[in-house]
Every structure is written in structure tokens, then in C-alpha cells.
Design goal:
mainly alpha, 4 helices, 70% helix, elongated
């Protein structure tokens, strides 16, 4: 199930992450919890397809987030002196 969230089993796909094993274990527990929740709360034939659909959406959202981050970093490179509002929006500190 971890492969769904990571996109692959390769630790190099997230270069800034230091605790790969802890993240992998947490994602595995969350995926199993989601699967168990769906099996308890849902019924009918759509129940079997809901978990893979949700996992596919999560994978797509991760890809979209990576693309967004690349675009923000590119904007920062092109226009290093942004307005304070834009700096606040794209700030790495949350």
C-alpha cells in the first residue's frame, strides 16, 4: 500500500526526507486504517473500488503538489524581489 502514496518504492523520490522508514510505517498504518474504515462504514459493490480510488487521488494530489512547488521555486528564481504579499504566500515557513 505504501507504493500508492509514494508513487514508487524508491527513497530517492523525496530527497529532503530524512526519516524514510518512519514515514513509510506511518503511511502504511494510515492506509490500513482507511481500508478498515471503508470496509466497516461502506457497503455494496462500490466498496471494493473506493480504497483504490482514494489512493489514486492521493497519489495525484502529491504529484500536483510537487509540480506546484517547482513552479513556485521557478517564480522565485525569475523574480527574486517579490511583493511582501507574494513572499508570504510562497514562504517556506508555515
Amino acid at each position: 500500500m505504501r507504493v500508492y502514496l509514494n508513487g514508487s518504492d524508491d527513497e530517492n523520490n523525496r530527497p529532503g526526507v530524512m526519516q524514510h522508514r518512519a514515514i513509510d510505517e506511518l503511511q502504511e498504518r494510515l492506509a490500513l486504517t482507511l481500508k478498515a474504515y471503508i470496509s466497516v462504514k461502506r457497503s455494496g459493490p462500490e466498496k471494493k473500488l473506493l480504497f483504490p480510488k482514494i489512493m489514486a487521488c492521493l497519489t495525484e494530489m502529491r504529484t500536483m503538489n510537487e509540480e506546484h512547488t517547482k513552479q513556485v521555486l521557478q517564480i522565485q528564481d525569475i523574480q527574486p524581489e517579490m511583493s511582501p504579499l507574494l513572499l508570504e504566500i510562497v514562504s517556506k515557513q508555515c
